[in-house]
Write a sequence for this structure.
C-alpha cells in the first residue's frame, strides 16, 4: 500500500496510546507562509502537551505519510498552493504519478483510518456551498464523514457555506453532530450560527463514550465534534459576514468553480479582514488540538 506510518505512531497505536491526525491542506492552502508552518508545529506541540501523539498527514512522492517530520511540514508550508489539494477522487492520479498532495479533511480521514488513527483535529470542514441547488457543489468531506470511521474535531464550518443545508446533508448521511459544551453549531469565526447540534457534550469523557458506543455497535462512519472558538478570539459577526458576502460576489464575478472555490473564499476573507481572521483561525485550531487530544486520551482509557 502507498502508505508510510511513522514509528512513533505505530508504537503508540500498538500500546493503545492516543494518536491525533492533522491535515495538510490547512497548511498548504489554508494559511500563508510562514504562519502555516509555525501553526502546524505548534498544533503538534499542543497535542503532545495534552497527552497524545500527533500525526500530520500528507502525500509525498505518491506515498501517504501518516506522521510527517518537521522538515516535511516545513516543505508543505513553503510550497503552499503549488502542492495540489487532494480529495478522494484525486488519490489514484497522485499515487500513480508519485506526486505530492495536500490532504483535505476527506483524504486525511481516509489515510488516518488506513493507519488505524481514530481521531482527527482540524479548523473547519467543507460542506454544502451556497447556491448548491444549482451548482451541486457539496464537499466530499461530507461523504467521507458518512463512510469512514474517524472522529473529526473542528470549530464547525465557515459561513462561506450554506450551514442549514450542510446540517441537513449530515443528518441524511447519519453523521452525529455534537457540540462541545454548546447546543449551537459554531460557525468557525463565531461561536453561534442560530442552528442546533444533535447533542451538547459535557466533557471529553462524554465524547469518548459516544464514539465507543458507535464503534461497539458496528455503525460505520464518522462523528463530527464541533468546538466553539474561545470567546476572546471570536470575531464580530457583522464584520465577518460582510467579508464573506464580498468574497462570494467576487468569486461569482471571476467565474471561479469546483475545487478552487474553497481556497479562493478562504484567502479572500483573510485578505478583506486582514490579520484578524488569520489570528482567530490559528487560535481556534489550537483550541481544537487540545480538545482532540483529550478526547483521544479519554477514549484509550475506556
Ligand atoms: N475550511 C476551512 N479551512 C480549510 C478547509 C476548509 O475553514 O483549510 C479545507 C479543508 O482541507 C477541507 C477543504 O477539507 O478545504 C474542503 O474543500 P472543498 O470544499 O473543495 O471540498
Ligand atoms: Mn466542491
Amino acid at each position: 500500500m502507498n502508505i508510510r506510518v511513522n514509528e512513533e505512531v505505530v508504537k503508540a497505536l500498538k500500546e493503545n496510546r492516543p494518536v491525533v491526525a492533522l491535515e495538510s491542506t490547512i497548511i498548504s492552502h489554508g494559511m500563508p507562509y510562514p504562519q502555516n508552518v509555525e501553526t502546524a508545529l505548534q498544533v503538534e506541540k499542543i497535542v503532545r502537551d495534552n497527552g497524545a501523539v500527533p500525526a500530520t498527514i500528507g502525500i509525498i512522492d505518491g506515498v501517504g505519510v501518516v506522521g510527517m517530520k518537521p522538515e516535511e511540514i516545513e516543505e508543505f508550508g513553503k510550497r503552499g498552493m503549488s502542492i495540489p489539494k487532494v480529495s478522494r477522487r484525486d488519490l489514484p492520479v497522485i499515487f500513480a504519478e508519485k506526486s505530492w498532495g495536500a490532504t483535505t479533511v476527506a483524504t486525511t480521514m481516509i489515510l488516518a483510518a488506513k493507519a488505524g488513527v481514530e481521531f482527527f483535529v482540524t479548523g473547519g470542514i467543507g460542506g454544502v456551498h451556497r447556491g448548491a441547488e444549482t451548482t451541486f457543489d457539496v464537499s466530499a468531506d461530507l461523504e467521507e464523514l458518512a463512510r469512514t470511521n474517524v472522529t473529526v474535531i473542528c470549530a464547525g464550518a465557515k459561513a462561506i457555506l450554506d450551514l442549514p443545508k450542510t446540517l441537513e446533508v449530515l443528518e441524511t448521511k447519519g453523521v452525529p453532530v455534537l457540540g462541545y459544551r454548546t447546543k449551537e453549531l459554531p460557525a468557525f469565526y463565531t461561536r453561534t450560527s442560530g442552528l442546533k447540534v444533535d447533542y451538547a457534550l459535557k466533557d471529553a469523557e462524554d465524547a469518548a463514550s459516544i464514539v465507543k458506543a458507535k464503534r461497539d455497535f458496528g455503525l460505520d462512519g464518522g462523528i463530527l465534534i464541533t468546538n466553539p472558538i474561545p470567546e476572546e478570539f471570536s470575531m464580530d459577526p457583522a464584520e465577518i459576514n460582510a467579508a464573506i458576502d464580498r468574497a462570494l460576489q467576487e468569486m461569482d464575478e471571476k467565474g471561479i468553480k469546483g475545487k478552487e472555490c474553497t481556497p479562493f473564499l478562504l484567502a479572500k476573507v483573510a485578505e478583506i479582514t486582514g490579520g484578524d481572521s488569520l489570528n482567530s483561525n490559528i487560535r481556534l485550531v489550537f483550541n481544537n488540538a487540545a480538545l482532540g487530544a483529550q478526547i483521544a486520551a479519554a477514549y484509550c482509557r475506556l
